[in-house]
User: Fold these one by one.
Assistant:
Number 1:
Amino acid sequence: MTPLFRKLTAAGVAVGLTLVAGAARAEGDRLVTIAKPANLLVFDAARRELVRDCPLEVNAMPGVIQVSPDGKIAYALVNRWEDVIGIDLESCERVFYARQSSGDVRRKSIASLAVSPDGRELYTVRNPTRILPDRYEVLAPEFAVYDTRDGLQAEPMRVYPAPRRSTVMAADRKGNVYVAAHDVERIEALTGYMHTAIPNASWKRPKYSPPDVLAFWPVGSQNDEFMLLYSAAVFETEKMENISDFVWGYQTVDLTTGETQLSDFGSFEVIMFSAVRNPQAPNELYGVYTQLSKHDVQTRELVKRVDLPHTYYVINISSDGKEVYVAGTNDDIGVYSTETLERIGEMRTPSGGDMAAATLQVIPGR
């Protein structure tokens, strides 16, 4: 081999390795969901292709999902709210399992699942009931903290009191976990100390009814926020006489700073089950049910609304803010342009099984 040929060969190998490394760095967003019969699915969002189909070998519903911060493990509530499973998204291997019920005590976590920013702790709110021969004994709710490295026989490291009616949760960068209950409560994960972050059922807003909040789909990680939709009636007087309007609003927690916000953004014209804000333009809010709506929360204007081919329960958004994904209910994930709300693609579950109320999570590309 001549010196010139060796140089050319080395240069070619270097270019090839650079291209491979660049391709790895340029990996696009992935979508993670669960579909019947009992499969965790991973899609390449840009190519609209299924890249992983992981049989869970357990009753997979309701399929509330949280993803580890490094994007490698998906945790889900399974077995009718009772258990937590962790799946490696490359190998489909089960790497974590927590059986929350034991003895005569049955424990259910109603959409309550979160992972710490370093990926080492997992949180649930468990609702225990003692099953006795002649009656059910309702016990106090529990905030349970697990070590994600405890494998397939995980038990809580710490257990603290928790608020009733807890649903979705999110962990911030300061060691707190925000829980949607009657109000949005902030729990210090290390000590269990709890106080109210956002008054919700207990808010003091003259002329407003108590809000109605459907907190079931834990989305919003692209914005580093914990966000909930609410609706409420607005009255003409503080005596709650004569309804003047029904409004949509949102409440949010910045998971870096802890800053909270609560604001109306439009009239209640259509039902929305879930919503997400654009990570590149936080004033843009997208909501979904039988229509896909785009709102400007700063001007409180409806930008556009389009009808959908059927109902979708959950919405999420690409990390570059250019596409929204609507899922749940049936077997298809619809892809829409955030600019025009035009349907520009779709992905389907391989079995044809529906996603029911499963979460759709987006893992940002690298």
Number 2:
Amino acid sequence: MPKILQISDLHFGPHYVPEAGEALQQIVPSLEPDAIVVNGDLSQRAKRHQFEEARRFLQRLPRVPMLVIPGNHDVPLYRIAERLLKPHALYRELICPDLNPVLQIDGAVLAGIDSTSPRRAISNGRIHRKQLDRCAQIFAQAATGAVRIVVAHHHFAPGPDYLHDRTMPKARRAIDCFVDQGVELILGGHLHRSYIGNSLDFFPGNQRDRGIIILQCGTSTSSRGRGRERNENTFNLVDVSAHLLTVVHYMYFEERAEFSPVSQHQFPRLGRPFEAAQLTTAPPMPQAES
């Protein structure tokens, strides 16, 4: 079963932190991910040289399957004509031509959703009905036992802190659809701080026993962390087994110039109860070097 690395909000440009970026490059090979997810905002202002720097960064990562989606910073903000007429032109040219990519690997199906809304909602994004219908078609073809994962830049649930970020309009509709589609995990970014929990923490849901694990990644390589992760850099590693989803949360420590694991979270797979025997087979939390 796969291991999936989640990074987000690289923000190449004035806020990029080279030391964190290099530390990320150094640790990723040792984690041996089977796939890498990049949750958007690769650039700060959707400029050509920022996308070129982001592309070089991605090319240095291990050569494993990768799913990349755009964030709101990957469309021009102040270049209004470009934003209205060809908002994703540079992103498509330099990063990925597909704004809603799909990645299928052994044991997992990941559906990327472009949640940017350049003409209507610059900051908090949109999810459209046709995107939900497309996800239903993708997941209907998933192999038995494969984990179904949605990847979007914007958040479907508010961060559980005093900042009170607005969620996307019709986020509850999307969550209900994903529950019906058997989605087990949503990977998001945008908030610049991490959250690891369940959709039932925020929304009643149309099936109380089938919430969705929500994994929000902070900013992995920029100085724009917020809330409890102000000026911090983080990423997540998801380990999928037949019975468990295990998430290890990493943070960058400037004094050591390295990322180290700071917490581990375990969730039963969809429809499976927690059993003590399963917990003992979960992968051990990596140990930071002293």
